[in-house]
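Ticket #4471: structure export looks truncated?
Reporter: QA, pipeline team
Priority: medium

Steps to reproduce: submit the single chain below to the structure queue and open the exported record.
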Amino acid sequence: MPMRTMFDRFPNELLYEVFEYLTIYDILYAFQGINKRINKLLNNYDKYNLNFQSWPKSKFDFVRQSISPEQIQSLILSDTNDTVRQIHLFFRSFYIRRCINLKLLTLNEISELDWIKIARKLHYLPKLTSLSIQSSHQLSPITTELPLKYLTLGLCPVRNLHQWLVHTPMLRKIEVQLFAEVSNTGDIFSMNPMDLNICQLILKLPEKSNVTFDELDTLFACMSKLEVLTVCAKKGFRLVNGDRWENLIRRHLPSLKYFHFKIHPSLDSVNTIQLFAPFQTSFWSDQHQWFIHCDYDETMNSAFHTIKNIHLYTLPYCDEEFYLSTSIQSLTKLKKDVYQTIKKLRLVINCEYHSHILQQYYFPNLNSLTIQNLFVFIPLIGFIDLSQIKHLTIEKSNTISSEQFFSEILTYSINLHSLQVPWQTLREITGDFTNQHVCSLLTKQIKCLHISQSLSKIEQNKCQAIINLIKIFSINLEKLNVSVRSLHDVPYY
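Actual output as written to the record:
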């Protein structure tokens, strides 16, 4: 008879509490097969939280074969490049109607075909209250009523949003990437009015959204109970009107307490001070205490006209992404601590560098940094905590030698493990693979590498290029993504 240990005396409640701190793979791998009691405990546990994003297929298959669908409480599946057809594979093994305890479902980059199959069966999930569908293309709306309280949608036209809202009467919070169709369907909300119970709305408007104040007017007219509104627009030149925003809020949103927005239009022949003035009235600063900040920088378009890139945003900052140019100018002064929420920074290093950046900006919590247009050396450690960065992207158009510059970045970015870089820039960073200090840092730190430029265009000896990569990254590299135009560009040994 096996000897009993102190572990066998642990009550089930204590083991369940331990499970809360572990991934499902760690739970099953560590505890499965210890004894009959633990196996029974694992088989009866119905609060597994499954997040399969970026999981290797071996772990994915192990978990699929070790649990039943009734045990799943939350589920995140993804059909991105590193987990192709994951959604299809999962639901080929599990009938969705058996996931009776599922409360949260997230489907990233799902295809229209897979979505149609799943959407038809969502009404079999009595406990489902949160649904997130992220996709770079629009998907069909649901046709049956669901008891959802939280909903996140990827690209969605105004007409489809109306149908989603019709079939989710219990909805309290919605996030959507909204766009307006070419045909005039913006009055769908006025023709079919609703009285929604939504308290929080997050609108994300992609670059070619085409949403205007007219669409927002009919949408907000259905949301008199709205308390929190967030609007993030990639461009949003149609929405740079403080008077129109004030009018919309006064007429349709009497319960609104928090209003967050950021818009980034590029405008020709505009007076920035006049544009900003309507956002500085007593309605904003005194009545609601919504504080607006305005940055801008200037660029030249293809016709050699000066374009102003305007950056209007509320504070505290409402998004995890931020754009900063070294030539940026500000109409308002801020404290450095307002940028603590930002996780992703796009830094454009132009030939013009304003030193006030060091006094006005500080980003202590970045995990992703993208650098574009490296024209001058600037002291990044003066306004960025490099030790927090996990992913670094270097884009094209670097006009100076970047070896010294990125040697400093790599030295201080002690948690960096993912790098996306053009091949030519990688050669510059490493001094054509001769800088031992930089190469050793890359060897130790980088686990995910994405070469964002086809080798065929710049490297005649592709085999030698691969040899150089192997020399640097063979020890710790787990994932390699190299752009190729055709199979002929792939070197064989």
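Status: closed, not a bug. The export was complete when the record was re-opened. Leaving a note from the reviewer for reference: The first helix runs from residue 12 to 19.
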